[in-house]
């Protein structure tokens, strides 16, 4: 049995950034093992549906650390390894071939895309997007097809529809909700995105669900519950993800839409942390539990957890941040909109250059969305939220006021 002072279970973004930070903090060679089901070393996930998918970036640009990083720093990287059981008393992880002991354990198993539960979901040409291998396969097939159906109008669905359309694929976006990204943004912003996509040839099919995927060996079309049929040589499902908690059900770590941690990312089992998509952590800024599925969260929780494994115990204090690129649109979102009572707009949404502010009754900003605003200005929105200084509505909506002035 091999034993390591530090083990990271999961080979995604958390692992890549945690390892990088641990080396920066003086990690002892031979003391860290990363166990991953993936066939590739840790890489950034955002390019999979955007830059890499569109052909703007090559796969090598996605890797978090260089090709010699792990060997040069004495880090053991076990790829294509599926852990089947965890023994917290013995402090071991077991696969079909290995038993690996640990002193410190960081759980970063992430989340896995939900599959379409319909007939034909196993046909060739039906895809999920989570790994670099998935992205490579979709990109290669996209060069050979004319039409695709994207299911789901959240982050992945919207990004994939944009990327495939930019490659010349005729796309239909099918979603059950009345609006795209309905769980993220209010109607004016959703309508803006809908108009933008339709102007660029994406067909929007709202309030519909997939009944069956048709084809003989390979997908040829999609039948909807309405009876409508869509022709397609590819289907990509972007209908959400589920945290990978199966190994931990019934164990000493509380499972509740992820692995529950405190503000230190500690699970309650001594020297066992959780970070990234799988962690339902205590957000000290908004004083509430939160599980956050985005690159920014995985990145910064990886840094924090890496330091914690080396003895630097501090709370994870980071304002939630989403961002995305869709066609030539680039937008950012910070904070917690659920903590606000109303939405105010600075600029006209239809112009493609505006900010939206979620504010409380006492005029504190809890969340902000920016589109078409330069990053140097836009990022000040985070300072405005963290400052928690009441700002009158007429100032928030006044385009003549610089963000610096609002931040005080």
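Q: What amino acid sequence fits the structure above?
A:
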């Amino acid at each position: 049995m091999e034993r390591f002072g530090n083990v990271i279970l999961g080979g995604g973004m958390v692992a890549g950034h945690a390892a990088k930070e641990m080396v920066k903090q003086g990690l002892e060679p031979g003391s860290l093992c990363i166990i991953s089901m993936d066939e590739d070393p840790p890489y950034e996930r955002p390019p999979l549906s955007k830059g890499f998918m569109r052909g703007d970036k090559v796969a090598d640009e996605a890797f978090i650390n260089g090709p010699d990083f792990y060997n040069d720093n004495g880090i053991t990287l076990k790829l294509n390894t599926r852990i089947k059981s965890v023994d917290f008393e013995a402090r071991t992880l077991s696969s079909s071939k290995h038993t690996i002991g640990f002193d410190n354990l960081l759980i970063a198993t992430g989340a896995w895309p939900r599959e379409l539960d319909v007939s034909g979901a196993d046909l060739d040409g039906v895809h999920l997007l989570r790994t670099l291998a998935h992205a490579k396969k979709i990109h290669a097939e996209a060069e050979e097809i004319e039409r695709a159906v994207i299911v789901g109008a959240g982050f992945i669905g919207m990004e994939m529809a944009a990327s495939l359309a930019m490659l010349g694929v005729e796309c239909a976006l099918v979603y059950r909700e009345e609006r795209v990204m309905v769980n993220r943004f209010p109607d004016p912003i959703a309508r803006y995105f809908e108009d933008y996509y339709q102007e660029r040839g994406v067909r929007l099919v709202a309030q519909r669900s997939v009944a069956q995927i048709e084809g003989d060996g390979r997908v040829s079309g999609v039948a909807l519950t309405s009876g409508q049929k869509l022709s397609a040589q590819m289907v990509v499902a972007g209908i959400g993800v589920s945290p990978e908690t199966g190994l931990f059900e019934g164990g000493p770590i509380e499972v509740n839409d992820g692995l529950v941690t405190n503000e230190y990312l500690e699970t309650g089992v001594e020297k066992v942390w959780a970070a990234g998509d799988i962690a339902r952590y205590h957000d000290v800024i908004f004083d509430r539990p939160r599980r956050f599925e985005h690159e920014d969260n995985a990145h910064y929780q990886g840094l924090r957890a890496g330091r914690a494994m080396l003895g630097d115990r501090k709370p994870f204090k980071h304002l939630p941040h989403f961002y995305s690129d869709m066609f030539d649109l680039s937008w950012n979102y910070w904070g917690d909109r659920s903590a606000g009572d109303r939405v105010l707009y600075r600029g006209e949404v239809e112009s493609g250059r505006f900010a939206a502010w979620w504010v409380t009754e006492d005029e504190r900003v809890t969340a902000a969305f920016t589109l078409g605003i330069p990053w140097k200005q836009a990022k000040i929105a985070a300072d405005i939220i963290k400052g928690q200084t009441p700002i009158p509505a007429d100032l928030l909506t006044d385009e003549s006021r610089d963000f610096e002035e609002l931040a005080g």
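Q: And what stands out in the fold?
A: The domain at 328-407 is CATH 3.30.390.30 (Enolase-like; domain 1).
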